[in-house]
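User: Predict structure, ligand pyridoxal-5'-phosphate.
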Amino acid sequence: MEEVPVSDLAECGALETWLPKIGEKLDQFLSFKHGDAATRRTQWQEAFGTSVPDQGIGIQALVDEMTHILIPNGSVIAKPGFSSFITTGPTTAATLASLAASIASPQRIGITAFNHLEELSLEWMADLFQLPKNMKGLYSSGGSSANIVALGAARQWAFENIGIDPAEDGLVRRCTIYVSEAGHHTIHRAASTLGLGRSALRLIPTDDEGCMQLTDLNKQIKRDLDAGLLPIAVVANAGATSTGAIDPLKQIAEIAQEHAIWFHVDGAYGLPGILDPQVAPRYGGLEEADSVIVDPHKWLGAPVGIGATYVRDRALLQRAFTQGSSDYLEGSFTETDVHSHETVSNSMDAIGIPYNDFGLELSAPARGAVVWALLREIGKDGLRQRICRHIRMARNLADKVRQHPKLELLLQPTLSICCFRYLGHTNQDLDRLNQRIHRQLVHNGVNIPSTALIKGRFCIRPCFIGARTEAQQVDDLLQEVLSIGASIEEM
Ligand SMILES: *Cc1c(COP(=O)(O)O)cnc(C)c1O
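Assistant: Predicted complex:
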């Protein structure tokens, strides 16, 4: 038999040696002088090869490949002028905390500082974003899973009210979920994943501002109740992904209450907007929510992989998502009771808060330390400044667009998204023209907004969200759109 070495080939320490090398290269990366990755793709594809290596190259050569081939061929998402997605490049504090957690607390459970920060940071966000007093949270990988968890709670609640445990027995009734046409498609996926089916969705029309129409909501609910369907939730946008529109939360909450339906607020992007005093009144009604989600990996600047769900009663989550106990897990602890901290003397005596029973994940990173770090660094004031800066940017852009004869504003911004388009000469196909302008923006690689369709009209849609995105970017984008537009018209 072949002899098996007693120790591992993988380097498992020496971070002090390797982190500075990676750090230096990442700082360089953030100056974005390396050009676009796709233009060099044959080079890096070849460099990576195709087959799994029999022998490793060791940590030194690996770090070399990371610094020379991998990092310089990364994404444009962290660029200051990137305003396409709502996810963005993480801040330094968030990056460092994420790294620290991966080494110092590979799991979120146990009586550790990391487990403690999981709960503390959730409480901080609940406080910052003015959630109902008794709401408790749970981290997950992002808005997609956060919506599934929230609607899983809604499903549990609705079925328990008719004497059925859907987690145990499955679904026995046709159900409905109410969300506006502008609702995020992760709601559609949540409906399918939870076994309700996408056809359970009732897509309520929106008004000229992109907000859910209340009369349509009311009518649809009554029609469905008459037909004997079981309503699971009414979902309101607190910041629609295309436009930033905030649904009338208060009125929607009243309608939901009138029919005893769960009220869910999708604030994946827009919940932090409540920190801007100019927009805060729009969040009236949030205090009535039964569940709320927010994505720290959007406006808060966490690395991608962090979303949060809040509900009033985590026991409901536990009934909806428990995997049942397993001897290797619960059996490894003396106590699984959260409140037994006084009696523990070792971090492995108790599991801490059993987040693994509240959602979809068993193994999960300690995300709370990341949210703690990014808030600890700049505080509520720093976060508010960022939110206000981005919202001002969208409004400032809207003002300038309104005053310019070659530009058209499609929607007055609510949050940090502004939808506008370039006006060519008469008889020009404006959808096509703006599509061409957008492709050119992307290829120039400086200001990189996305696009949206507003009532069927194609527009340019920047979403100002990144910590690196500064006020100057408004004029940069405007000038570039005007100059590309003019040059296309001359062709
Ligand atoms: C981004 C977003 C989601 C999905 O979140 P992911 O983190 O991308 O999974 C859901 N709802 C809204 C309103 C969003 O903006």
